[in-house]
Design a protein that fits this description.
The chain is 0% helix and 43% strand. It is mainly β and 437 residues long. The strands form 16 sheets. Strands 13, 14, 15, 16, 17 and 24 form a six-stranded antiparallel sheet that branches. It has a four-stranded antiparallel sheet with strand order 5-4-1-12, with no helix packed on it. Strand 4 (46-50) and strand 5 form a beta hairpin. 38% of the residues are buried.
Length: 437
Amino acid sequence: MPTNGLHQVLKIQFGLVNDTDRYLTAESFGFKVNASAPSLKRKQMWVLEPDPGQGPAVLFRSSHLGRYLSAEEDGRVACEAERPGRDCRFLVLPQPDGRWVLRSEPHGRFFGGTEDRLSCFATAISPAELWTVHLAIHPQAHLLSVSRRRYAHLCPQEDEMVADSDTPWGVGALITLIFQNRQYCLRSCDSRYLRSDGRLVWEPEPRARYTLEFKAGKLAFKDCDGRYLAPVGPTATLRAGRNTRPGKDELFDLEESHPQVVLVAANHRYVSVRQGVNVSANQDEELHHETFLMQIDQETKKCTFYSSTGGYWTLVTHGGIQATATQVSASTMFEVEWRGRRVALKASNGRYVCMKKNGQLAATSDFVGEDEEFILKLINRPILVLRGLDGFVCHRRGSNQLDTNRSVYDVFRLSFSDGAYHIRGRKGQGWKRSFLH
C-alpha cells in the first residue's frame, strides 16, 4: 500500500564522475571500486550520510552493495565496510566549478584516480581528484524550505519564485532540476530558470547555475559568487542571500512530486469537493478544489485521490464517495481502467464509480457506460522528464530516435487535448511510434 505520508522526502542518490567522464563504481567481487563505467546504473549510485558523530565528515554508502566507501592510511580504497568506521569518514570540499574534492578525514589525503587505479593518497589536488555530482533521483520534485517549512512555487503576479505555500498544490509547485555544465539549474513550470538575483530567465546562463552542497541530508544551492539560495524577506522570494556558508535558511528538502489531476464527467463538469465532503461533478472551472493528488501503488497499480481540503477519496455507505479519509486503506484504493481516451474507476466494493443525476459520484455500477467514464487530465507536468526501469529517456545523438536507458535526460513538452497527450521534443517535434523489422 502507499504510505500515508504525502510529503515523502526523496532519498538523495547520485553518481560521482571523474575528470575522464567515468563513474565511481562499487563492484560485488572483492568489494573493489573503480572509475570505468561510462554511464550511471545501479553499481554507480551512492548515498551521502552524515557522520554519526555530528562532525563535518560524511559517509558514502553504495546503493548497490549497502556498504561504505573507506580509505586506509596507505591510500587503499574499498567498499567493504558493513558499518561505518573511522576510515569511512570523508570531508567534501566543493570547488568553484561545481566539482567536489573528497579528503579522508583521519588521514588527510585526497581521493581520486582513473579506471581501476583509484587511491586516497594524493597530497595535492589535481584533475584526477575532482568529482562531478550527478543526481540519480527523478529531477522533477517539490522544493521545501527547511527553515520556513514552506514550499517554493512560481508566483506569476510578481514574476518570481517564492517559498510561502503550505502545500505543493498545482502546477506552479513543480521544480525541475537541470544538469548543465557540471552544475544544476532550477527550472520553473513555465520553462524559465531561476537566477541568483531572483529573476526568471529563459536561458541557463551562468548566474542561473548552482553548485550542489549537502548538509545533514539537506540540499544547498551555491551560486557563482559563493552565495546560497534562500527565501528572502517577508515575501520569501528565492534568491541568493548574503551568507557564504549554508545555515538553516539556506537548506532545502526535495520531495517527490506525485501526479495532480482533474477529472471531467459525462456532464462536461469538473469533479470537485468545493461544496462539501461529497465528491461531485458540478463545477465549470478547474481550481484547487477540482485538483486531486494521485498516488499509485507500485505493487497493485491501484490509486488514491487526495483533495486540497485534506482528505482521501473513500468508499462510504451505499457506495458513496467522500473526501474524508485521513489514512490510506482498502476503501481509499481505486483501480483505473483505461478505455481509449477515457478512464473508469473501480472501487474496493468491485463496482464502478458513476455520476448520479445530481452530479454526486457513487460506486454502484456493475458495467461501464457513459456515466462511468471520465476524462483524466494531468495538470502538473507541462514539461516532462521520463524514466523507466533502465534509465532516462533521451534523444540519441545525431538522430531523431529516443533511447530509454540513458543516465542523462531530455525535457519534453506535454500538451493535452480531449483525453490524449502530445509529447514534443526540444525543437517541437512530436513523438510517433516506429516498428523495427
